[in-house]
Specification:
The protein contains 18 helices and no strands. The protein is mostly helical and 420 residues long. The longest helix has 32 residues. The radius of gyration is 21 Å and the shape is globular. The termini are far apart.
Length: 420
Amino acid sequence: MRFTKQTFVTAFALFSLFFGAGNLIFPAFLGYNAGDGWFLVAVGFLLSAVVIPILAIIGHAKLQGTMMDFAKKVSPVFALIYCLIVYAISIALPSPRTASVTYEMAIQPYFELSSWGLSTIYFILVLVFVLNRSKILDIIGKFLTPGILIILGAIICIGLFGEYEPMRVSTYTSNLTSGILEGYQTFDAIGGVLVGGVLVISLGLKGVSGKERQGIIAKAGLLAGLGFVLMYVGLIALGALNSGTLVVENRTDLLNQLSFNTLGAMGRSALGVLVSLACFTTAVGIVTGTADFFKGLFNESKLAYSSTAVISCVLGIVMGQFDVHYIVEVAIPALMFIYPITIVLILLNVLPEQYASERVFKAVVITTILFSLPDFLSTIGLATSVQSIKDILPLGHITLGWLLPSIIAFVVSNLIPKTK
């Protein structure tokens, strides 16, 4: 397997576009709570935060299209509605969250700058990168990602060789499923569907086309996936090692202490730089993907691209004023609704054509929507009303009640003989 310079640059860019503040905060705290059960937690987290997103990238490499192509086999109308929901969620929640996290962890402790001021400067810079999108892969891949890798690598490598008290017993009922569900919070499955289209278009603007582009994206996805595995396992293991030594209340506090204990007095400053870089690249990827989508809807209109980018950044400034905890809580209902649909769409798109016909797509997606509704409704104040339904569904008690019915729908729709 041959890896070109463009493959590595694209892999660096892909890693950076995925790796946001949530990816830093969630793994370490997950390991901290898991303690001696950190390995199974890591497996679950890698399934939902690495395997599924990278499969989305491979799916894009296969389709060589936009996010609309991911859902078009269900129906064109469904594909449009799905895309509108995903992009609305993306610019309203994870994108503003990057500014909020940057402010709380990298700006507020050191500078006398209001959240309004930071968000305004932050999203102006995001807008500059998005409007110069032909250079986005080179700029992000060559300069920002290495900074993330160096700082985070130092924290993990130094921390893993420290001396700690014995790890505590896991606080989770099921380590594997807890890891899977925590991986939802990274938004990376949605990010994979969104960012994959950015890679296809960006490489096209660089003159890369056809089979070569498909190979570059697939190989870059595998390289980025390896980077994710190393980083996530390192952070989860580091959190677990500190579970019997440190006493912390939240994710941010743990990450601050880990950076201080490993990098000394300059640890907090290094963490601030890391968070800023990770958040910024994620915001650029989200806004670029959203602008690309609306540009395609309006006949490749440059005005549509620019207008969408401006609107997304203005919304980012406004929503970025809320604190991180509030944005994370607001995101839960949206995740419980859109994530199961996104996961099945990704899996169906990477399967061979003979197992993923239009009939299979429709059967599986409709089943997933129906059986994920109880999980969604329970997060918007109707938990009591739907609890009896969740109790009946296999895996319903761990908010995976949609999984087995979707698998059955897939098998049955493939076994039923085709009719004209």
